[in-house]
Amino acid sequence: MSKPMSGAQKRKKKIEQKLKDAKLPKLDSFLKNTVESTSENPTITTSVFEIPHENSEKNNVIDICQNMNNTDDCDILLSKNMTIICTKQYPTDIANYIQNSVLRHLSVEDKQFIVEHGPCRPSGPFSRNAVGRCFDESFYYTVSKAGLRISRSWLCYSPELHKCYCQPCWLFGDNNIKHQEWIRGFNDWAHTSRGIERHEKSIPHKMACMAFYSFQNHNTVNENQEKQIRDEANYWKLVLDRIIATTLTLATEDIPFRGHRENNETESKGKFLAIIELLGKYDPVLTELLQRPKGTIKYLSPAIQNEIITALGDKVKYDILLEIRKAPFFSYITDSTQDISKIDQQSHIFRYVNVMYDKENKPVDIVIHESFIGFEIMEGQTSSEMEQQLYNNFEKNKIDIKKLRGIGFDGAANMSGVYSGLQARIKHTQPLALYVHCAAHNLNLVINDSVKNITEIQNFYEKLECLYSYFANSIKRWAHLKSVSSVSVSLKRLCTTRWSSRNDCLKALSLLYVDILKLLAYISLMGRNKDEKSKASGLQNYFQKFDVILIIVIESKILNSLQIVSLLLQKSDIDLLKAFELLQTALNKIKEMRNKFEEVFEEAKQIAISWGVEPTFTKIRKTKTTKFFDELSNDERLHDAEQYFKTQIYYRTLDIIIKQLEHRFNGMNQVIKLFSSILPINICSMNENELKHLTTSLVNNYEHDLTIDLVNQIIQFKRSFENQISKLNSVHDLAKFIIVDNYLIAASFPDLCTACFLFLTIPVTVATAERSFSKLKIIKNYLRSTMSQIRLSSLAIISIEKKIAKEINTSDIISTLANKKSRRMF
């Protein structure tokens, strides 16, 4: 036995082995290009086999873009070369793969192309050399002793090089073998037969042929790896299909994703993982995914959730922006609110009109859209800062401000200011953009003004809020009221910013009035303490007055008339004409009420009797003012309670509402007058001279969008369809009649169609922005207050535009993520 090596000998042997290993070429040098460079001595190394050659005319050397600066330049050049090669008569000719007199390196894609397109075997005639010899077509075949004719499929001929060569050896041969003429090209025509026989019997040739057949049958290592990648990608497509479907379901229904501890061992894993686990009980694909060992990629992490949510949100936003860009015009609607994290979130809404077509490209409908494209953090509160942010948003989303025709904001000074507000700044850049103050906000301001200017009405709503607080602040009193109530209605809290709040409060009070008075009387006698009894007694004394019952009846009638208008104004597809008609109807009802005090009084009287309240007014104490000794006139005041109520409360309330409705909606009235020539009712009722005058004014205002031919088009349209026009109720109906119902003649009235689209594009309210804030508070609540802005905006887009989200084709998203995932595995 040999003596064991000492420690020093072992260390010496280890160092020697490392030195030997360092001299060996790395495996990756035979597979890909490696570019190594340093700042001091940049060098480019190539990892390809090189064949020594005697001269560039007779020998071809395999090389790969050594003169290129980097591999990207090389790839671009090779791609261009392949485009040229495909146009040639013999695309697999070896001459096509020579650059700078050297045979370039072939990629797997090149080899696949050559194998799929077959060998280069022209039938002749063939070029002769100086002594008159040439290649012959008979060399393509060999004949056995028995006369059997067998094709030499490996043998090829290059018409450009005038040489024959072996295709398998060229593609898969050992470039280090001694004889390279069958790779570079053989042209010794005097000894062609002997050279062919000697080559096809050689071992390197046979090995190259075996490699060729293996490659042709997709049995190469690369092909096996690609197949494995394809199988892996198909599996991940199935996984991602289920994950994306789950994500869409949770996002569209505003359901939170994450839990306290996101792993399979905890019970608080979150709704996303809980649904995946539930589906895994019935779905084999997810079962296999969940059974994968801990630490492997499963596409279930929060990072992947964010990636998928962002991809889905971007796809929905992309589809919406495409529609906005295709529309002839659009309007911009915005508003802002503070979220749970005290961040000012701005909502971006675009209003536009497009024509819907069927499969045969026939118009079927005209749709008004108000589409949400996301939340953005407000960068400032001044109009100049908001203006810059708006322009940046337009530029980022590639939206042309030249097509902006309307802007809709609320009444905030920095938004609606005439001189330096955001609307004034936008109109300076785009004068054609009409500003419309939100009709729904305006209507709410009308109601608020009618309340705050009349003391008795203001006191009534304050007492109503006190009544709610009295019961809501005590669990026992609230439960007691609920137990004695005969209807399943609860008191409502008054909120001045909610448009339907006052009406809801009055309805609840009317239904619970008797039960409330009984309970207040009981508490005032049997209450637990003096303070509780005192408050109950005070509320009872106030609400059992006939004056209060009459106020309830009056306010209910007013608010019911305005509530219908308020709800219809909040519809996203409403146009200015419909809004104006609704407001005009409400205004007429309020004016009619002014002459119906006796009817209202009798109705209140009957209600008071049914509620057990004496129908008499509270007596007014006669007051006298101090009169100077030489003053002759006496102070005259209303001493009759009924007359006082009629003049100081009833008439004043109605007069304030009438005046406010006429004043606040004057801007809307001006827009209606501008477009009055295209209103169906005016087309029918006005004569041609009146229509011509109004149309000329409209054309002058929109000279970039309309031509003076609009005058002739409206007159011709009236003459042709006067009976049908009388049945149309709105501009939307008019546009649909021309473009959809009579689409063959739509091309005859292009300016009339354009004018209709302009009118329908102008916004009416910012209700869509207000609805987006409701989603904001649902998505980003106190439990999700740390949510990132990108995730918030994407979830909001998916939730608000859920119809588009459910119809998007997720195959592109799935393919991209699946291929990315499968490549990570190798």
Automatic annotation (TrEMBL):
GO molecular function: protein dimerization activity
Residues of the HAT C-terminal dimerisation domain: 748-803
Keyword flag S-adenosyl-L-methionine: no
Keyword annotations: Coiled coil
Coiled-coil regions, chain positions: 576-607
Region ranges (Disordered): 1-21
SUPFAM superfamilies: Ribonuclease H-like
Segments passing through the bilayer: none
Domain called DUF4371: residue spans: 221-421
UniProt-recorded name of the protein: Zinc finger MYM-type protein 1-like
